[in-house]
Amino acid sequence: MCKTALVTILSLFILTISSTAREKLVFHSPEGWSTLRDDSLSIQFISDESVYESTVSLMLVERNLHGRERIVSRSNADISPSGNTVSMQTSLRNMGGEAYYYLRWAVPDHNLSGTVGPISKYRISSHALNEEIPVPLFEEGSLSDEAVAEQYAQVAEEELPTNVYMAATPEELILAAHTEKTGTIALDPANAKTGFPLFSVRYISLDTAAEMPFYYIDRRSSADTTSVEISYRSREWFGDMNSTERDSLRIIRIPWNNLGVKFQKNRRLGFAYLAEQGAIPENADSYIPATWSNIKLEKK
């Protein structure tokens, strides 16, 4: 047998053993990238019959922004043939973005171990829904650039958070900001309730030095199943967005299908304006949509 074929066979054999080991304990809850809503974590798993009556050791680990970790709670459970549910307490703080929990588990008698995560937590009571921003909804095709500039000029300054004007028609979402305005506008079709940015979140970066705003998506990933380290990296968001300038305003038009959103009246979207000064809301974190506001389409 040639050396290449032998290496291939050995690799497949090792992968089969590794896969079988992972399948001996299958977690239904929590799931990676999930968001908890209170201070308790419900853990549910099933197991292969070969590990029945063994003991599984569970540790809930908190990882902060600087990569330092601490064990929040521990629990041991006897593995039952009828399914298993264990409850563990989290710390009191909200977690998300680059700070999160993960579950570390082990079955020492069978030399099995693994991790589940990352897991965020954001209580609904902490959500910035009270900062919901109404967005006027106009009839189809009724908002030219000239009309947008007129609407911008008519709105009282105190009603225009950080001077970002928003409007909508059945075809598109319209954003207008002064050409000297810098910062990042974030939009979340999932109503900004998650502790991690979803793949559907879209960002628009405003830069006075650029001729056009930069539209991008944050791609999230965890390094592997043992370290549960998160990485975020941006890639360009391609679509039919359009940007023009009129009366010192930059007017951005985004078709609803480019947001992955089906238009409807009273629709809500997660929204944040991220800037060093004048962010909306004040506690907005770019990697934690649950710290953002919502905008609501309301008929003019």
Question: How would you describe what is shown here?
Answer:
It contains two helices and 19 strands. It is mainly β. The chain has two domains: 28-122, Immunoglobulin-like (Sandwich), CATH 2.60.40.1930; 127-299, Immunoglobulin-like. The strands form four sheets. Strands 9-19-18-12-13-14-15 form a seven-stranded mixed beta sheet, with no helix packed on it. Strands 2-8-7-4-5 form a five-stranded mixed beta sheet, with no helix packed on it. It has a four-stranded antiparallel beta sheet with strand order 10-11-17-16, covered by helices on one side. A hairpin with a 3-residue loop joins strand 10 (164-168) and strand 11. 30% of the residues are buried. The model is unreliable at 1-21 (pLDDT under 50). Residues 1-23 form the signal peptide. Keywords: Signal.
Beta-strand segment tally: 19
Structural class: mainly beta
What's the oligomerization state?
Answer: single chain
Main sheet properties: 7 strands, mixed
Question: Which percent bin holds the helix content?
Answer: 10-25%
Please count the helical segments.
Answer: 2
Second CATH tier, the architecture of the largest domain = Sandwich
- Which CATH class of the largest domain? Mainly Beta
Strand-residue proportion: 35-45%
Mean pLDDT: 83
Gyration radius, in Å: 24 Å
Report the principal-axis shape. elongated
| Order of helix and strand elements from N to C terminus | HEEEEEEEEEHEEEEEEEEEE
Uncertain spans: 1-21
Strand order of the largest sheet: 9-19-18-12-13-14-15
